[in-house]
Specification:
Layout: E1 2-6, H1 14-26, E2 29-35, E3 38-43, E4 49-56, H2 62-71, E5 75-82, E6 85-93, H3 107-142, H4 150-179
Antiparallel strand pairs: 1-3, 2-3, 4-6, 5-6
């Protein structure tokens, strides 16, 4: 049996997404893919799967990259292509509740991931903001109607707030890691 769950989690909330997937596995719902803003799960026996997510910028050496994780006991569950890279979802069965299972063995690796993610999404958010701002200004000067610009203004503000939040949260996480 398959289950689809809509859940809006932004890239600055990796821990929340990983916890969500872990919780679903404990209930017997095992993550298979992410498509159309929905998480897809297959029903099975409840397992204590720990999920971790990484962003792989270059996919040229993907087989070697996946082999390293496989050697460490991680199973690649799903790869979600975005920009020039891919989000890769891994899972590992945990038999010890006190064991801290992480794919990043040092804080510099995690800082590197967060900086890559921040750079990619900041670029994307700024590009979208400039496009929407251009459309808004074009609308104001050509149509001269404020009402027709309301949807564009709303989209612009949503993008600005969403990507501003994302940038702020990722920067805060990076700073916190750099200070420890």
């Amino acid at each position: 049996m398959e289950k689809k769950v809509f859940k809006f989690i932004t890239v600055d909330q990796l821990e929340k997404e990983q916890d969500f997937l872990h919780h679903m596995a404990l209930e017997g719902w095992h993550f298979t893919k992410y498509k159309n803003l929905r998480y897809h799960f297959e029903q099975g026996k409840p397992e204590n799967y720990i999920y971790r997510i990484d962003y792989k910028e270059s996919l040229e050496d993907l087989d070697e990259y996946l082999a390293i994780f496989e050697d460490a006991g991680w199973e690649a569950v799903y790869s979600y292509p975005i920009f020039q890279g891919s989000w890769i979802y891994f899972r590992k069965l945990s038999t010890d509740e006190t064991q801290n299972l992480e794919i990043f063995t040092d804080k510099d690796s995690m800082i590197g991931l967060l900086k890559k993610v921040r750079a990619q999404w900041t670029w994307f958010g700024m590009s979208m903001s400039f496009i929407l701002l251009f459309l808004l200004l074009s609308n104001m000067f050509t149509i001269k109607s404020l009402i027709s610009g309301i949807p564009i203004t709303i989209c612009f503000l949503v993008i600005l707030v969403l990507y501003g939040k994302l940038f702020f949260n990722l920067t805060r996480k990076i700073n916190r890691l750099e200070q420890t």
